[in-house]
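Troubleshooting entry. Yesterday's outputs looked truncated, so today I'm pasting the complete records for two proteins to confirm everything comes through intact. If either block looks cut off, that's the bug. Protein one:
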Amino acid sequence: MKSTRKGLRDGDLFKDTYERLNCADCEKVLKKQNDPDEVFSVRVCPECESTFKELR
């Protein structure tokens, strides 16, 4: 699982005009899953199921 920063650098993600993270393949907005026991949140594309982690 890549981080969101690495995904932005590699071109797997991009930000839209409202600074939301989007999947470059599907062009869908990523959804956030929070686990209270973890230090990071997981961002998931609803269409292709690719995952990225994001530090809180």
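Protein two, checking that the full record survives here as well:
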Amino acid sequence: MSIKAIRHYESIGLLTNIERQGCYRIYDNADVEFVSLIKRAQLLELSLTQLKQLKVTRHDLDWPALMALPFNINLIKAFLKNF
């Protein structure tokens, strides 16, 4: 995961309320897990725009809406396997 990608997620509102100490960002475990979720969702060919629309809290997605999207069931199983 590149710093550029993480900054991009912040700029579009996928990563929010990141704690800071001076000019440094402090990411907690939930932030790291959410970035991992973003990357897995992209493997399912979800766009960042779609993910942003599905985001309901700082670290969670609208799972019923996500499951309602037309995906290959094997891709969904692979996605959920590691979550």
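Both blocks look complete. Sanity check on protein two: The longest strand covers residues 19-21.
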